[in-house]
Sequence to fold (505 residues):
Amino acid sequence: MALKKTRKENYPEWYQCVISEADMAENSSSPGCMVIKPWGYGIWERIRDVFDEKIKSAEHENCYFPMFIPLSFFQKEAEHVDGFAKEMAVVTHSRLSMKEGRLAPDSKLEEPLIVRPTSEAIIADSFSKWVKSYRDLPVLINQWANVVRWEMRPRLFLRTREFLWQEGHTAHSTPEEAEAETKWALEAYRELCEDTLAMPVLMGRKPEHEKFPGAVDTYCVEAMMQDGKALQAGTSHFLGQNFAKSANISFVNKNNQPEYAYTTSWGVSTRLIGGVIMTHADDEGMVVPPRIAPYQVVIVPVIKKPEDEASVMDYIGRLVNAAKTQMPFGEKIRLKVDRRDRKSVDKFWEWTRKGAPVICEIGPRDVAENKVMVKERLKINTPNAKEIADCDEFVSSLAQRLEKIQHEMFTRAQERLAQNIRTDIVTPEAFKAYFTQSNEWIEDGQSGKVAFVRGKWSGDPESEELLKAMKITIRCIPFDQSGSEGICLLTGKPAVTDVIYARSY
Fold:
């Protein structure tokens, strides 16, 4: 029962079909915005909870800042405001009134307010009040919030005018400490993507023209989607003293001298859900890694006669109570008993579309034989799709089953990434020929499609125009540089820097 569109037929339409059939989100009547439905928001809650625990364990504290930011705050940091100017939503009036029978803006604000595209400017203002001495540092805070950026081509989860995210902001007394914080956040994102989302990533530094506006350095984690395009999964920025100088975040250091603080910022967003979809979903629908599944196990009662209901539901109740004592990934298993008055086959396919990791069907025969019919989402449409398991054995091994699914999902994606990073393209001619091919879905185990190229880059400003003309980007400068000499794949000039080239979302 494949989706209306498969990956091969039309990848963008397949992506929309996955979201629709999994009932994860929908376009809102507010232009460019989305409604995140319970299953999609449940996935975000799991991502949020896992990462929130990680940052708190590193002594960061959550707080909240206003979503309305005075325009003058952005103007203090010219490079920052220039980078976001085209995406900013601006509030210019404070209220509406009736004019000629229609609502219209009334009271104009003395100073326009920017609806939060990111919070460096407003948080820097608070830091300037909090920090007076080196004893006040470091400041380690985090915010879970919504953000508004006026996207011209919205796409569910990937680019919408409003989205949800996490943004960490810190202030330090030395550049070394701030750099260490930036690298810590980057590693935390790698762990989140790989260990929790089962989505392998490449780590590195952004080239100068791709840096966050106002940053000294921007670091990133980049993932490969099934169509070979790159998705920026998270970024971490070393801001140096740029924002500290514009906002006057100054302190008296240990030598009793005034000094500006060194700040960082780092964030991930609901775009990660788009990454999970395009990393793991198949032509049947969504496939959710167990660690972020709102329900890891869904139980569908199969009751055809009213007299069977009591025994089947009692059996399921005992199974659920026993399974909840299992502790995969450090917490209780999340189970759902689907009691809705619908055909069991319809409920099964609905949960298949949603991507629940394990779907069980239990009827009178299973009760009589102490069995469970088990179907793992990864095995749908394979010879091993259906398994009749002993109930006690199923419960006792459920934690290991979920962990095995999580590991298999990561391994599949990791192999696909490794097989589709080209390192054998060493001339501009071969490079251009490679990227003039059409993008296609990358079948598991098949390399050779248009995906990532690891090759040389000269850093010449001329190369930026060539990138735009070819509609590709430099995703990152990997940390593991080879140090070998070669030819820039864009300009043909001598080069030693290794970069990752790709099309991107």
Q: What stands out?
A: The chain has a mean pLDDT of 93. The first helix runs from residue 11 to 21. The first strand starts at residue 25 and ends at 27. The chain has 15 helices and 27 strands.
